[in-house]
Amino acid sequence: MTATPGLDATRLASPDLLRAVFRRHAAGVAVITARGDDGPVGFTATSLTSVSAEPPLVSFGIGLGASSWPAVSQAGHVGVHILGEHQEALAGTFARSGADRFGAPTGWREGPHGVPVLDDVLAWLVCRVVARVPAGDHRLVVAEVVHGDPSGTGRPLLYHQGRFNGLRD
Questions:
Q1: Peptide bond into 105 cis (omega under 30)
Q2: CA-to-CA distance for 136 and 140, rounded, in angstroms?
Q3: How far from chain centre, in Å, is Cα 81?
Q4: 149 pLDDT exceeds 70?
């Protein structure tokens, strides 16, 4: 029997193990927005997934302790924004706790269904929330696409090894 490379370094499941493994997984960067009772809310997400083409469904995860969760937990619609590599600062703003996410220099407008739509993104969607599925200390939000615009220009922003990066050829 041959040894599997690295098998001696295995660790038992833990939050730290999961974080360490997923730091090696490059992910696209999105900002999720919603209209809350006190105004617009939003957060940076790397958990965005295309779920189904028919009907068109997407999903993303949000922590129960996130400042945006109370609004997202009640929202009928959410915005999904695919960020370009030129938007590293915007991704950081929406990832930072306590930041004024919709103040200058963030450009945005009210979109369909009152959802905040960010300016200058590669693409955006407005989606109707169809499910909020319990998943540990998070909720997996499933939403059906109702509007969108894929016409932005540029290259995608990625998240890898705890940092935002551009796509390399």
A1: yes
A2: 10
A3: 8
A4: yes
